[in-house]
Amino acid sequence: MEVSEVLPLSELGIFTSFTRMTLTLLIFVVSILVSFAVSSDMFMQVGTSVQLNPVYPGQDFEVFLWLFHNNTIGKYYKDISKLKLYSPYEGRVEFNEEAHSLILKNLQRNDTGFYEAKTIGETNKVVVKYRLTVLDPVETPVLTTTPHMQSSEACNMTLTCRGHDYSVISSCYNEICDEMELTLPGSVTLTLTVSGRVVNCNLSNPVGWKATDIEITPLTQHCTSHGKVHHPGSSNSAHLGPFKGSMLVIILSVLCITK
Asked: Are strands 38-45 and 125-135 parallel, antiparallel or unpaired?
């Protein structure tokens, strides 16, 4: 008959204590993860509106606040269902009492910064954080071509893509062009790409883009299939010179014989 081993009470106590400590630590970690504010990055264009949505805060609070760089935008008093807005946000803000979301209208570049929502009650808690960046719309880029008209380089050209006081330059030969990309301050990107015979100059940022296209086909009229220069004004008459001379000799010979 097998005899089960019975642990001493002292060891059982240590095991039980360790289990309790583990569970307590696990609950503590989970509570931190649940209460930790969700952070998000947002990009918006000047003149538009943005809606900031908090994580559901529950009902255990007295006051709900939206802040910008720790300056209060508005306070919502739950017990009396009243919203107090602070200057300069009066007339620019809509607050949803059920979702506790905030709509900020007519965004300007000085609205760029950190926003957060807080609850005040028995315990104060940050429920969400946003980092908002407000950007101007990009301008339409300018794309120019400069053909090299010297006799030895008539099949070459230079493409220049300009925008926001910056430019990228590409060299082309017989419709083969280098593609370029430049990253500018403020998350702006200037790119020059080629698809077939169409060259695209694109200026973009996280809230929009604009582009200019040109077709490079007309420039190929200066090139032969071997990349040599062909002058449209020249004719084939020079190649007929010996033929014309032979005809003249024959005509003169006939005239002499007839005489």
From this structure: parallel
Separation CA 38–CA 40 (nearest Å): 7
pLDDT by 10-residue block (mean), the chain, 259 residues: 49 53 49 52 96 85 94 95 92 93 96 96 92 95 82 72 93 83 91 91 96 77 42 36 42 45
How far CA 113 is from CA of 45, 130, 134, 139, in Å, comes to 14, 8, 9, 24
Kind of pairing, strands 93-95 and 102-104? antiparallel
Hey, which bits of 155-219 come out as E strands?
156-163, 166-173, 176-177, 180-184, 188-195, 198-205, 208-215
What would the two tokens of residue 115 be?
């926003």
CA separation (Å) from 133 to 67, 73, 145, 169? 16, 17, 35, 30
Report the pLDDT value the prediction gives residue 150, as an integer from 0 to 100: 57
- Which residue in this structure is represented by tokens 């609950």? 27
41: Cα separation from own chain's centroid: 13
